[in-house]
Amino acid sequence: MPEVVSKTLYDEIEALIPIFQSREPELDKLGSFPFENVNALVDLGYTKLILPEAYGGVNLSAYELVKYQTLIAKGDGATAISIGWHMGTLLGLRNNTAWPQQTYDFLLQKVAQGALINLVMSERGSGSPTRGGTMQTTATKVEGGYVLNGHKAFATLSPMLDYFISGVNLDGEDSFFLIPRHTDGVSILPVWDSVALRGSASHDIVLNDVFVPDHFLVQQADIANSVIRSPGGLLHIPACYLGIAEAARDYALHFATTYTPKSLGKPIIETVPTQQKIGEIELLLKQSRYILHGVAKEFDDGTVQLADLLAAKTTVVNHAITITDLAMRICGAQSLGAKSPLHRYYLHVRAGLHNPPTDDEILTLLAKATY
């Protein structure tokens, strides 16, 4: 992707930050979703840049992707995590050779026309697929295709999904199916009530006798280790929380430079305790960017190690939590005010602890990598 194009897109997304931030408080309501924000990114052509050039994209690098996703999250975390799953799914599919060619071509052509996609894997009560959870959703072979029945959870981007890739139990084997969102029998169950990233609308999807043609069975594999769940496709997750942390830093910095208590007679940024907290924030931000950007570049070069991808995720998410906490400490009790976004930012960054893979999984894998 030529640097001039990248710079232009960066400027265009940066111009959206204050607009996204102005809409962010409304996304704290139940049933909310950033329709206008997502449409703005689709209109920019952002959602198709991740496609290979043969399909109308520019083969967007993982390095550029995490930079853009961080920028979007600085404007609004719900928008970033939602569109990030679309982008990450496509990144995971980029070098996929397991799918039927006609289905692969079909989906990527739809994305080039503006379609949005996501992975919808989790099921309530069965555990995470990354931990070996077996799919309870079933597929039954019928003439010309399959009939799917089941109940999926945490379908981020659900109000605007056009297609989703889902894990299904087919004759005792976990398999992947491509499912058009607007197929008969597919319904959204609006149960998402999380206080963090509420605007992501990560509702449940119910499949009731949903028919899909034969070629929409796209892959039969170990779901936990499938190329569809490529760890590189999860790089958008830490990028999201880094962007939210940057927004928290900016808010705290503005507060510190403009708040002058009468008892002090000068802005609090001139005090050593405040400077120490700001210094801690800057150090954590630099560490986060360095590991995230470095791992993304290694992913692009084909030299990345799984342990480094996992380390980037847990490092950035936990740094984001600390950064946001420090920002709240700088602003004091005012950080809990209804007009301050900091209390929402703090809830949002904690959601990263529960995005896959979780810290305990990562630490166990890092430990096992040493012997």
Automatic annotation (TrEMBL):
Where do the Acyl-CoA oxidase/dehydrogenase middle domain residues begin and end?
A: 119-210
Instruction: Please list the GO terms describing molecular function.
Output: acyl-CoA dehydrogenase activity; flavin adenine dinucleotide binding
- Annotated Acyl-CoA dehydrogenase/oxidase N-terminal domain ranges read 24-90
Show where the Acyl-CoA dehydrogenase/oxidase C-terminal domain sits.
Answer: 239-351
Keyword Oxidoreductase in annotation: yes
Q: Which cofactor does it need?
A: FAD
- Keywords in alphabetical order: FAD, Flavoprotein, Oxidoreductase
Record family assignment: Belongs to the acyl-CoA dehydrogenase family.
Q: Name the chain's protein.
A: Acyl-CoA dehydrogenase
